[in-house]
């Protein structure tokens, strides 16, 4: 009796970053037939995350919380509850409930990564969420002026151009699960997110970048739609890629996914008031460096500009499928 044909293996996709952009993209990706692992920065030191990091000596939970909620099969009210930030109360004001739950899980399990895993199970998360390292990382920036700024939250406020960022300790060990996920990946996605404070802190963990370089997966950079004041003022797409190359020592990506849709002038004006501009797609410069470009209208505007999660995940899924077919 012949066996029924086995189902094709689901593509294994690893996403690296932090911040709102990553969470938006993951909401689209979780609807695709893929296995997702999100590797999330642990360099945050502001707000509720910074307080918990300092007082409880734990990695900052904020970016992890946002990614867990993005990937969770949770009722909208539960997601809203986890994002609830206490407006008042001695010791409570400013904290989000999700951050406090992660702190509790960390304490109960005795380990941050285990706490994240347990909360993932409670929330029925589609995929895995892993901190880039088991311990918090201190992010520092050398400005073009020569000044050194310490702290992820302080870097964009320093008021100058960033020459480079670096982490302390420089030889921090990555979470072994994160390394294994990268080794097994069919696709590795970096971004979107704050270039210097959400993306590069992950890539500066030595073994993570080395593992990406050695991987046979398709490697994709998802570029931000708008520049970020204090970080990427007046940056083009190629400027983002150059910054990554300068920090890791090589051209890391095969593909770049960028927005080429028009953004209404009134929306641009709103962002310009805060010092943000559209990231210019300098296509000739990008392709000259050997990157393949996928460009489409990838933005939605409600209260803020955000990536169109459905369209973005469609392009990513098509790219990963074709890459796997090519590899056989």
From TrEMBL:
The record ties this protein, via PANTHER family, to: GLUCONEOGENESIS FACTOR-RELATED, UNCHARACTERIZED PROTEIN YVCK-RELATED
Q: Name one GO cellular component term.
A: cytoplasm
Pfam families, alphabetized: CofD (PF01933)
Q: What does this protein do?
A: Required for morphogenesis under gluconeogenic growth conditions.
Family of the protein in this entry: Belongs to the gluconeogenesis factor family.
NCBIfam families referenced in this protein's UniProt entry, alphabetically:
CofD_related
GO-annotated biological processes? regulation of cell shape
Annotated localization: Cytoplasm
Q: Which organism is it from?
A: Paenibacillus thalictri
Q: Which GO terms describe its molecular function?
A: LPPG:FO 2-phospho-L-lactate transferase activity
InterPro entries the record matches:
CofD, CofD-like_dom_sf, Gluconeogen_factor
Listed A to Z, the keywords are: Cytoplasm
Do you know which SUPFAM superfamilies this protein is assigned to? CofD-like
Judging by the UniProt lineage, the source's domain of life is: Bacteria
Q: What is this protein called?
A: Gluconeogenesis factor
Record's keyword annotation contains Cytoplasm: yes
Q: Does the keyword Cytoplasm apply?
A: yes
